[in-house]
Amino acid sequence: MRLLLGLGICCVAAAVMQLSATGAEEEVSKKMLRHVVMFGFKDASSEADVQKVVDAFRNLPNEIPEIADFEYGTNNSPEGLNDGLTHCFLVTFSSEKDREAYLPHPAHKAFVEVLKPHLEKVVVIDYWADK
């Protein structure tokens, strides 16, 4: 009887562990749409001008609910391969539908107007993130 009870407990524990592992795998494998934007600014643009652009971009998650995540930074690579691009922004969406809502959104269009006078170069790449 004890042997059967012990086997039953082991089977239940194994089933729970399998369910937990499956749930964890599903969470890890959930893909997110990444929108990578890299800017190079005009030499004539002041630090204050560039900061105004950065602040406007940083504010977009407050105005566009479809943005799932946002981060940014400035280049500090020692390789010298940035080709004049100094700022990188990573905007994350849960779906292509969310990106479709973001691109024509009035807040995004207003940001582009702040950016335009200072933009020398831009590169945009979108991809589905795999982990």
Write the layout of secondary structure elements.
Blueprint: H1 2-29, E1 33-41, H2 47-63, E2 69-74, E3 87-93, H3 96-102, H4 106-115, E4 119-128
Antiparallel strand pairs: 1-3, 1-4, 2-3
Give the biggest beta sheet.
4 strands, antiparallel
Distance between the termini: 46 Å
Low-pLDDT windows of residues: 3-17
**Sequence of secondary-structure elements:** HEHEEHHE
Mean model confidence by pLDDT = 86
- Helical segment count: 4
Strand order of the largest sheet: 2-3-1-4
Helix % is 40-55%
* Oligomer type: single chain
Domain Stress-response A/B barrel: 33-127
Pfam families: Dabb
Keywords: Signal
Signal peptide: 1-21
Verbal overview:
- With 131 residues, this protein is α+β, with helices and mostly antiparallel strands.
- It folds into 2 domains: 29 residues; 98 residues, Alpha-Beta Plaits.
- It contains 4 helices and 4 strands.
- The chain has a 4-stranded antiparallel β-sheet with strand order 2-3-1-4.
- The termini are far apart.
- The N terminus is likely disordered.
- InterPro entries: Dabb, Dimeric_a/b-barrel, HS1/DABB1-like.
- Pfam families: Dabb.
Notable traits:
about 130 residues; alpha+beta; 4-stranded antiparallel beta sheet; 4 helices; about 45% helix; HS1/DABB1-like; signal; Stress-response A/B barrel domain-containing protein; Dimeric_a/b-barrel
Q: Nutshell version of this structure?
A:
By secondary structure, this protein is of the alpha+beta class. Helix content is 47%, strand content 24%.
